[in-house]
Amino acid sequence: MRSWTFVVVALSAVWWLFQTFRLLGAIRVLPHVSGMPRETRPAWPRLSLVVPARNESTHLADAVRTRLTEGYPELEVVIVDDRSDDDTGAIADRLAAGDRRITVVHLDALPDGWLGKVHAMQRGLDRAGGDWILFSDADIHLAPGTLERVIAWAEREGVDHVAALPSMTARRSLEPTLAGFFRLLTTLLPLTAVADPSAKTAAGSGAFNLVRRSALDRSPGLEWLKMEVADDFALGVMLKRSGARQAMVVGGEFVRLEFYPSFAVFQRSLERTGANASAAAVIAGVAVLATLELGWLAGLAQPEPARWLALVTFVVAASTQYAASRWLTMPRWPAVVPGLSIVPLGWVLMRSAVLAWRRGGVLWRGTFYPTAVVRAGTRLGRRQPKIGSRRSS
């Protein structure tokens, strides 16, 4: 039994070392918005901010106002009220009445074969006239000067698509889940390869997907993603496959997301991922990840050398979590319990998969989608149609 315990502890130690090296590489390579100078120009390219919103009455007004006061001189905002049954539409209309830069699109129906959010993005894009398009969720706040910094940097570097990692604010009870979620995100994906045109690695961010319009025109377009649950990430993959030059940057204090107001809301939001894989595969994957994240705990009650290896792994894990949180401008204190976030995260993922299995599909943004339809619409890993055949499936 002790030999098996040591193997588990050793695997956990290797896992955390892997995360440490991956994170250090990302910290070293990824640009930070704070390091991008704010330029003064006689003319700026027109920027269209597309905001899909469904039942976002709590966040919408404050978040849109931060974008309007952000300072970008050639800005238009297209708010898409996607079949909301709260005050989202009325709030959007009041905002538009007070600022001519805002256009509101009200949707009261969803065409067959589309996910609600992707359809809202497409309808917003139809109304957008900018040289650059920023797809950004309704609960994102921008600090003054963010857009000027990022667009000037993108044009200087010849980048077509910029995805920004946001900082986040959340209730204290959600902070460990939040910190662990983004630490895993930034270490499981080789972010240093995103900017490499020869690498297949691509990325996207629902908080901040800034796209050059001409690059989007060279891709199959949003219609090709109309049933893709991971629309933000898939957008990045589609753009890079189409030849767009891509970059992942750290938003920090310049791009801020208000995380879900409660664990229950977070849990419901991730239900949309349940049909992506079988429940058995998700449960097995969570079990493996939990073993790697928390396996070092098994060595604390064992004799040497397992105990020493467990203690060293704890120090490495805590340091890695702290470094990730500091880098992403998130709460640092969850570093005292490194890896524990896999418990709520794993529960949410397993629950979503089991619910999808029992229901035969997923319920998202008020619409039910059968599992077969969701999986048929998945674009990640599929070959893209040629540029001239955007309506191919």
Task: Give the full name of the CATH homologous superfamily of the largest domain.
Answer: Spore Coat Polysaccharide Biosynthesis Protein SpsA, Chain A
Poorly predicted runs of 5 or more residues: 388-393
Could you say which structural class the secondary elements and strand pairing correspond to? alpha/beta
CATH class membership of the largest domain: Alpha Beta
Could you give the distance between the termini? 53 Å
Strand order of the largest sheet: 3-2-1-4-7-6-8-5
Number of domains: 2
Rough shape?
A: globular
Query: Quaternary state, please?
Result: single chain
Rg of Cα set: 22 Å
Number of helices: 13
What can be said about the biggest beta sheet?
8 strands, mixed
Q: What is CATH's topology name of the largest domain? A: Spore Coat Polysaccharide Biosynthesis Protein SpsA, Chain A
CATH architectural name of the largest domain:
Alpha-Beta Complex
